[in-house]
Amino acid sequence: MKAHGYATHSPTGELEPFQFERREPRPEDVEIDILYCGICHSDIHTARNEWGWTHYPFVPGHEIVGRVSAVGDKVSKYKVGDLVGVGCMVDSCRHCQSCDDGLEQYCDNGWTGTYDGEDKIGGTPHKTTFGGYSDRITVDERFVLRIPDNLDPAAAAPLLCAGITTYSPLKNWKVGVGQKVGVIGLGGLGHMGVKFAHAMGAHVVMITTSPEKGEDAKKLGADEVLLSKDAEAMEAAQNSFDFLLNTIPVGHDVDPYMGLLKRDGTMVIVGSVEPLTRVNGIPFIFRRRSMAGSLIGGLPETQEMLDFCGEHDITCDIEMVNMKDVNTAYDRTVKGDVKYRFVIDMATLKDN
Ligand SMILES: [Zn+2]
Ligand SMILES: [Zn+2]
User: Fold this and answer.
1) Among all ligands shown, which has an atom nearest to the Cα of 104?
2) Cα of 84 to ligand 2 centre, how many Å?
3) CA of residue 341 to ligand 1 center, whole Å
4) Rounded-to-integer distance, Cα 271 and Cα 268, Å
5) What is the pTM of this model?
6) What is the pLDDT of residues 314-330, one digit of tens each?
7) Where are the beta strands (DSSP E) in 54-202?
């Protein structure tokens, strides 16, 4: 089955039109006409081989929203016309403890990424999976999610990665009413962290270097702003937070933040896959504080997050782009020049 999309062919190449094959639907597969796809920072890192594992040609995109165009005989959850989403995973081993627990993102045998993953199902000439910057995709129904009808489908697309990445740790560490929660960094992840923590009833503090971003965060639901470059304010905020969601996308010193936590408080890293520096033992030992990490979310929790968004009317703040402008959107994303996520209007793919 022919598919059209955009691919890059080398770390320095631009994304350009590309034709490839998708597998014909198996009995358990859902075929989706893609309407929108978000641009995640991971797309850019992978397109430019910044993590060193990219296979080319590479079709990015793991924040996919579309309509079901066909279903296999054994598909029970979806029918033609349903509004659905696909996030970062399209397969996993399905028999390890993590898969049994619905935590496929921690699969012991390695899950299959929606893009640049080793395609273990096959049915095409390609060895790796191709992502959502394309007109269609075929996915096992277990890895397909339902998008609530009341949500704007374009603004819902980034929920599939940026949304679940921030929702999952807030739920796992039981953030809620009566707690003071800090969200560190205001980008694609941080803006969702603020919205979720606010909707869960916490007192939300935006922790940022930029006063302008602080003002923006208040419009998204933050109750307060803490400027991390203001030494006096940082000192006054010591030992006051129950939980910190750290969305900084690069390696950084964690010491200045650990002291903000109360006894038994936890800071969760969701943004940086680079080495973290200055991890001093003292803040951990003296108040039994913890630092942890969290990766996206499993299928059941991702559906729970989407339903939560439906109930609370939460979507991402987006800027829509045409497919042909994706390279410019990449450059602007790297500069942090987007509030807060680009989403590609896939109807513009045919203009090329
Ligand atoms: Zn992502
Ligand atoms: Zn598994």
Assistant:
1) 2
2) 23
3) 11
4) 9
5) 0.97
6) 999 999 999 999 999 99
7) 64-71, 83-86, 89-91, 112-113, 136-140, 145-146, 180-184
User: From the DSSP assignment, how many helices (H) and strands (E) are in the chain?
Assistant: 11, 17
Distance, in Å, from the CA atom of 156 to the CA atom of 306, rounded to the nearest integer, reads 8
Work out whether strand 112-113 and strand 89-91 pair parallel, antiparallel, or are unpaired: antiparallel
Using the mean position of ligand 2's atoms as its centre, give its distance from the Cα of residue 190 in Å. Answer: 29
Q: Which helix (H) or strand (E) holds 309?
A: helix 299-312
Residue 324 Cα to ligand 1 middle (Å): 21
Distance CA 32, CA 153 (A): 14
Is 98 strand, coil or helix?
A: helix
Rounded to whole angstroms, how far apart are CA atoms 135 and 247? Answer: 31
Q: Which two tokens stand for residue 216?
A: 């923006």
| Angular region, 239: left φ>0, alpha ψ -120 to 50, beta rest | left
Q: What CA–CA distances, in Å, run from 330 to 13, 26, 129, 169?
A: 12, 34, 21, 27
Query: For residues 327 and 44, is the Cβ–Cβ distance under 8 A?
Result: no
What averages of pLDDT result for each successive group of 10 residues across the chain (352 residues)? Answer: 97 98 97 98 96 97 98 98 98 98 97 97 96 98 98 98 98 98 97 98 97 97 98 98 96 95 98 90 95 98 98 98 98 95 97 75
Query: CA distances (Å), 266 to each of 180, 246, 352, in order?
Result: 12, 10, 48
* CB 173, CB 109: distance < 8 Å: no
Number of residues in the chain? 352
**Ion ligand 2 neighbours, Cβ < 5 Å:** 92-93, 96, 99, 107
Place of tokens 């129950």: 242
Query: Ligand 2 centre and the CA of 116: distance in Å?
Result: 18
Owner of token pair 């009566």: 178
